[in-house]
């Protein structure tokens, strides 16, 4: 069966991309919080601050809450920008599809069939594909 995709609905792309980017945003913020908590509890943050003050940056300190708020704000802006770019790219695909006639997709529909156990090797037909196996015949003995 051949199908042609001529247009992609921008509203559905907006909803899907917003949810996708929001999930990535939440995962990245969670990972950042976990890494910061691990680095802080192991003393890595203090060692890095001491090293930076030894190199010449006097009174250098990491402020975790301010850094987390800044990452959250930048991430929120990136979620909105990514969503907007995805919708604009979809609109461009729709415009190009108007000119070129769409995207052709071939869909094969198969009936769901329960797998059957075969005895012996599978028979083959000349083109290399396995031959279809006939369903078992039920006999009524009466």
Ordered list of secondary-structure elements with their pairings:
Layout (H helix, E strand, L loop, with lengths): L1 E4 L4 H33 L1 H12 L8 H37 L2 E4 L36
Antiparallel strand pairs: 1-2
**Quick one: overall form?**
elongated
Radius of gyration: 30 Å
Terminal residue distance: 45 Å
In terms of structural class, how would the helical and strand content be classed?
Answer: mainly alpha
Average of per-residue pLDDT values? 84
Quantity of strands, as a count? 2
Domain module count: 1
Placed side by side, the strands forming the largest sheet appear as 1-2
| SSE run | EHHHE
Low-confidence stretches: none
Q: State the major sheet.
A: 2 strands, antiparallel
Task: Classify the beta-strand content into a percent band.
Answer: 5-15%
Helix content: 55-70%
Number of helices: 3
Structural overview:
This protein has 142 residues and is mainly alpha-helical. Helices cover 58% and strands 6% of the residues. The protein contains three helices and two strands. Helix 1 runs antiparallel to helix 3. The two termini are 45 Å apart. The mean pLDDT is 84.
Features of this protein?
2 strands, 3 helices, mainly alpha, 142 residues
Brief characterization of the structure:
With 142 residues, the chain is mainly α. The chain is built from 3 helices and 2 strands. It has a two-stranded antiparallel sheet with strand order 1-2.
